[in-house]
Amino acid sequence: MIMNSLLRLSLVVALLPAALVVPQSSNAQEEMREGRTYVGVLGTRVSHRSVDETKKVEGWSTAAALVIGTHVSEFFHAELRMGTGVSPGEIDQQLKLDIDYFASWYFGGHYPVTRYANAYAQFGFTHVKGESSLTPFGRYRAETAQSDLPEELRGPTYRDIAEKDYPGSSFSVSWIIGMDFEVVDNGFLFVEGGKLFEDTETNANVFQFSLGAKYEF
Fold first, then answer.
1. Could you tell me the pTM of the whole model?
2. Where would I find the beta strands (DSSP E) of the chain?
3. What CATH number is associated with residue 96?
4. By CB count within 10 A, which of 52, 95, 125, 136 is most buried?
């Protein structure tokens, strides 16, 4: 009796580590992201702020981008984005701002918040080519003599800003914080926000708020 009990106890002790290790190894293998590549698409609302230092107004444009990245380790990734403007934004109904194209390079870190959700932050650089122009109303104000304008329309115009390159500096620091959610195997939806670029020539600060999808393989 004692011998049988000892044998059963020995068998349980021998099998217990294997029972604990196997499920953990399986889960770790399923969640491992190191070495994976991912591709995705995103749509972005772009906020143009501080374009005119004398007025605290902002304009909203839209953009779209392709994303390709790789998980260089379990918690770090590198990413490239190539995007283009979709619709221009307006400042004070007088100045039109548009992004022709942009390219961003990021290095970031991500951390699992739950089994299906990851928080991430990334920092890098963005190259932007855009343009600025006066709207018809903006041209009317800029090209009409002040004395011929109604009193409420008199004052500084956006002519000087429209005649400058926008952005004046084509390279800038860029950053993003966001979360992704696995909705199917290796398929993620993500939401994020951050700064797209800061124009040192015009002092414009441009922020990005995006929604997208990506697939890892």
1. 0.79
2. 37-49, 58-71, 76-87, 89-91, 95-112, 117-134, 171-184, 187-198, 205-216
3. 2.40.160.20
4. 95
